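Per reviewer request, we include the raw input and output of the structure prediction for the construct analysed in the revised manuscript.
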Amino acid sequence: DMRWLREAELKHGRICMLGCLGFITQEKIQLPLPGFDNKVATEAFFSVPAGGLWQIFFTLGAIEILSNGGKLAPADMFAEGRAPGDLGFDPLNLSGDDAALRRFELAELKHARLAMIGLGGMLHQMLITKQAPLEQLANFQPIQYYGL
């Protein structure tokens, strides 16, 4: 079902937009507590206690279930006519003007796709260079490749 695929694309894109912001923010702002001083997100992940990771896992699962009213299968998720990505959260009343809403939806989709590519790039850059994104841009050193 194309609606289910679009819903998944929007959810993953929204997560990646937040992830890109988080990678950049983590490099510049850290909590003044022990264990929060690592700027590289791929290394900081492994310093999180297992209990914290389980909390994140269950919280995201609860959000997924509650946002769809317990309907997770493609056959019943859109049975009431809900549009993909529409979770009923519109505090700025952006849906008031139909033409503007279509423009905002298209912009969100384009930004989501770009964020998915960007997050993948930042993640792989951190794994390869062991540097945070802005640090690596400021002190760029090409990767030495010596062939096979």
